[in-house]
Amino acid sequence: MTIPCVLSIAGSDSGGGAGIQADLKAFARSGVHGMTAITAITAQNTVEVRAVEAVSPGMIKAQIAAVADDLGVDAVKIGMLGSVATIEAVAEALGRLPAGTPIVLDPVMVAESGGRLLDVDAEESLRERIVPLVTVVTPNVAESRVLARAGEDVPLEEVARRIHALGPGAVIVTGGHREEASDLLFDGERFESIPGERHPGGAAHGSGCTHSATLAAQLAKGRSLMEAATAAREIAGAAVRDGLREVGAGAGPVNVLGLRS
Ligand SMILES: Nc1ncnc2c1ncn2[C@@H]1O[C@H](COP(=O)(O)OP(=O)(O)O)[C@@H](O)[C@H]1O
Ligand SMILES: Cc1ncc(COP(=O)(O)O)c(N)n1
């Protein structure tokens, strides 16, 4: 079998912890060939997002078409989209991929450091134009409540049901911000808890990106959704545990490749 080719449609993090930089490392960790369609460039470090510049819709579509026409796309991970114009471009490009291509959406809204990465007026487009097209959507708890328009009083199972009703194949609410750090999977029929140890002293900048990129890579390798979700939880958790705490003054970058000084 030839090596799977997986495409990340996401933003660039100049600090190297999240976005496409995290995705390429996660793809390598899972043994697939990584490709990128960059949606935005961020001037970002572990403390703040200083500036964001969108890539033009035409250039985003050209990147996706270039890799699809030659290398082929065995799975897609979508991260930061940023604006309505970018969402429209990505929705159009996804429609040209072969039916059945696994698509993982990490609905990135706000960076770990607090900077906004999705315009508020783009939340509705994300919900209507992208969420229904994807195989699995992987919000963290805060993102799940925005997608479901659910307040703190709504139980997480109901939040997942409401997101599923928007049309994706499945929902995984990631648990990095929950006390027990387990992920919650809902495929429209059953709930599965995907447990894992919490690493409170770890470095978590890029954990969501690492999780969704790993999920896409594992699906490209032919794993079932449950197998892929289990591997993504395990690999993201270990990347937080081994995270580079000493790098930067804020939340340090995850370390999915187990780098040591
Ligand atoms: N402190 C932690 N300890 C163990 N696993 C973690 C920790 N933080 C995040 N994870 C794991 O990393 C993945 C991403 O989670 P999360 O932090 O919820 O996403 P985001 O980075 O989008 O906020 C999930 O599988 C989650 O369980
Ligand atoms: C370009 C880009 N994409 C995604 C994230 C989210 O990652 P995190 O929530 O870990 O900051 C980010 N900070 N920057």
Short description:
With 261 residues, this protein is an alpha/beta fold. It has helices spanning 19-29, 57-70, 84-94, 123-130, 141-148, 156-164, 207-220, 225-241; strands at residues 5-13, 33-44, 49-54, 75-78, 103-105, 136-137, 170-173, 183-186, 191-194.
Explain what the structure shows:
The chain starts with a strand and ends in a 20-residue tail after the last helix. Helix 1 packs across helix 7 and helix 5 crosses helix 6. A nine-stranded mixed sheet has the order 3-2-1-4-5-6-7-8-9, with helices on both faces. Helix 1 links the parallel strand 1 and strand 2. Helix content is 35%, strand content 18%. The chain has one domain: UDP-N-acetylmuramoyl-L-alanine:D-glutamate ligase (3-Layer(aba) Sandwich), CATH 3.40.1190. With 261 residues, the chain is α/β, with parallel strands linked by helices. The protein contains eight helices and nine strands. The longest helix has 17 residues. The structure holds adenosine-5'-diphosphate (ADP) and (4-amino-2-methylpyrimidin-5-yl)methyl dihydrogen phosphate (MP5). The site of adenosine-5'-diphosphate has 19 residues, from helix 7 and helix 8. The site of (4-amino-2-methylpyrimidin-5-yl)methyl dihydrogen phosphate has 19 residues, from strand 1, strand 2 and helix 7.
